[in-house]
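Subject line: Sequence and fold of a protein, written as structure tokens
Body of memo: The sequence and its backbone structure tokens, given next.
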Amino acid sequence: MAIVKEFKEFAMRGSVIDLAVGVVIGAAFGSIVTSLVKDIIMPPIGILLGKVDFAEKKYVIISSDPAHKVAEVAIRYGNFITVVFQFVIVAFCIFLVVKGINAMKKKEEAAPAPDPVPTAEETLLTEIRDLLAKGK
């Protein structure tokens, strides 16, 4: 039963819950980026490259032959390049988020703490020190 209690404490820590939320949001964000690249970015690129569907670009190694039950073997470089675009967009967005968080942290660190107001005892001791220094 100690393991169950220990696991419960581990799972209920803030960092684990934050990680779970991040994974869920990341998955949803991945879907958005996939749609952005596939449906918005790649069609204009396909038009610029000669009105082709970029995701269907491939290099066929072995053509399909239904009579002999041979499936097509191809290198789908268009799909690979689309996935690279997705990665770059996600990486750039993460960069912007981390940059924003770091900027907020710098602002928090940059604000210096005000000098503490000396207590009455410290003020009195400072005056005594100064008077003793004058007397010498």
Observations:
- The first strand starts at residue 59 and ends at 62.
